[in-house]
Amino acid sequence: MTDALKFAFGPFTAPSRGVLVVFCDDGLKFGSATAKTLGSATDLVARAAKAERFTGKSGTSLELIVPAGLKVSRLVVAGVGKAADLTAKDFLKLGGMAMGKLPASASDLAIFADLPGSAMTAEQAADMAQGAKLRAYKFDLYKTTKKDDEATAANRTVTVGTADLAGARKAFAARDVIADGVLMARDLVNEPANVLYPVEFARRAGALKKVGVTVEVLDVKAMKKLGMNALLGVAQGSVHEGRVVVMRWNGGKKNDAPLAFIGKGVCFDTGGISIKPAASMEDMKGDMAGAACVVGLMHALAARKAKVNAVGLVGCVENMPDGNAQRPGDIVKSMSGQTIEIINTDAEGRLVLADVLWYAAKRFKPKFMIDLATLTGAIIVALGQEYAGMFTNNNELSHRLHLSGEETGELVWRMPLSPVYDKMLESRFADMKHTGGSRWGGAITAAQFIQRFVADDIPWAHLDIAGTGFDSRQSDINKSWGSGWGVRLLDRLVADYYEK
Ligand code: BES
Ligand code: MN
Ligand code: ZN
Question: Any idea where the domains of the chain sit in the sequence?
Fold first, then answer.
């Protein structure tokens, strides 16, 4: 949704217009390429630094408007603290920060991938470009009027100065399409529910065909035939029919079992008959953030031609109160054959996942299944907006997800699963209830419920992203309401452990 923004790599030459961002350490020292470009402006920077008490501390910056000796309209000196202390994760943030220094009215941004001591590597330069791309995203599709200072200049270009042009271009190719996947997910989450209802969600997922993904859509008739009554029960109160979308990318060996990613796609969650209070209900247009992540991830994997077989499955429904809506007390038979007594129709996500997880396991016999869902308010109470909750039956998957989280900054924290919670799901009338009855451990009882629909004990992880999928903490690389959380995490997981 971002206006056309071009990314390029170029040599360390002084740009003739726009904004230039350079880096210095906490001794106000520059890399050699930067020092050469600044030339006589170096003295100006030193004086400005003194006047502003800028010392090059990490996260701080100094701005000079129309600096003498340079042609740019603005020079930004960004502090990195001790250059030797920078870790791989920092470059993405530096790129985001640099992008944040480009006023809407300006069109050219140059960033020098240069540090005191040494020039950055091609990977670091490419990380910066990816960070800038993620930061530049803006969802303003429905703003018909813009103030002059908000209007974004046309044909914006970000040029990252580097000593290794070919290397940086090569390293950016994958990062570029991964970022596209994140932005795709953000778009889906930001779209309002009158535009993005299940049929439209499925149509948009169809765009993945362009990058070689096979996209298949199950309509109500097909779902009825499969016995997906848990999902259909949620969908029945809406004038918008439910859909399941199956996306397949085969970049691995022919007979390798695929990795499966499953997303909750509740396009709007009113709570149904157990209706939610009015305050912030508008946020429930984002209750399909899990599904959006799966679509963005499938884009990333396919577009960078990941050497892996992967399937993405999303269950899309709208949860509405209606004369035909599901009632508390109703009993539905899930695709697995297990019967469920409906208690609170606002606990709809787990019902959708129950059928999609079962279907995914039976049809694809995957190596593992990871589901993402904005499932419970309780996980926000437990972990806030920093970590997503992770529930898993597999220690190796837990370890790998944890490490991928640390690498990408999309953090997960393991929560318990245990039969000791099963009592809370006992029903008088059916095989089980779908909520625990009390609010205690609400994210855990939800996960415990879902686990009953993981067929054949396949390695499985459930990520409760209610706190991270939308309206989450803003950062140097995300100023969007819909965060696109999880695309980078899962892409990294696949790249680091499953493409060998
Ligand atoms: N979509 C909500 C969870 C949610 C709440 C996500 C706030 C993001 C922000 C989910 O369907 C829901 O309503 N969960 C209930 C479950 C309860 C009825 C057992 C909840 O968390 O209150
Ligand atoms: Mn709900
Ligand atoms: Zn929900």
Answer: 6-157, 179-497
- Per-residue DSSP letters for 213-274? -EEEEE-HHHHHHHT-HHHHHHHTTSSSPPEEEEEEEE-S-TTPPPEEEEEEEEEEE--TTS
CA contacts within 13 A on the Cβ side of 373:
32
pLDDT tens, N- to C-terminus, the chain (500 residues): 556 789 999 999 999 999 999 999 999 999 999 999 999 999 999 999 999 999 999 999 999 999 999 999 999 999 999 999 999 999 999 999 999 999 888 899 999 999 998 889 999 999 999 999 999 999 999 999 877 666 788 889 999 999 999 999 999 999 999 999 999 999 999 999 999 999 999 999 999 999 999 999 999 999 999 999 999 999 999 999 999 999 999 999 999 999 999 999 999 999 999 999 999 999 999 999 999 999 999 999 999 999 999 999 999 999 999 999 999 999 999 999 999 999 999 999 999 999 999 999 999 999 999 999 999 999 999 999 999 999 999 999 999 999 999 999 999 999 999 999 999 999 999 999 999 888 999 999 999 999 999 999 999 999 999 999 999 989 999 999 999 999 999 999 999 999 97
Write out the two tokens for 97.
């920060």
| CATH of segment(s) 179-497 | 3.40.630.10
Name the catalytic one among 276, 305, 367, 479: 276
- Dihedral, CA atoms, 402, 408, 410, 412, nearest 10 degrees? 0
Catalytic residue among 169, 186, 350, 433: 350
Measured in degrees and rounded to the nearest 5, phi and psi for residue 332 equal: -120, 150
CATH tag for 6-157 (out of 3.30.530.20, 3.40.50.150, 3.30.460.80, 3.40.220.10): 3.40.220.10
Mutate to test the pocket of ligand 1, among 266, 319, 346 (most ligand atoms within 8 A of CB): 346
DSSP secondary-structure letter at 278? S
For residue 319, give the ligand 1 atom closest to its CA.
Answer: 11
